[in-house]
Amino acid sequence: IWADRTIPNLSEEEQNIIEDWAAECFQTLLFNLVNPEQKQTLYGEFGIDWQQVQLEMLEAFGDEDRRESMKEGTNIFRVLIKTLLKAGIITDRT
Helix, strand or coil for residue 90? Predict the structure, then answer.
């Protein structure tokens, strides 16, 4: 709600700063949730090499798979993107 009222009143430079920050946070969240490197300790407890997991994930789930999952209405990343876009926090620029 605050973004709907605040963002339009900011300068273009301030809007860009907020948009860049939001994009960076989103990318970090996405990276941390799906990247096997972030789960090294967990994989190690079971004798699994996280780098092998990463290679196999890249082989099993391509760009098309990721795009399809983003179309699901319950995908948290889709919901987050739509919310940020509707609030004016992100634009076509990012």
Answer: coil
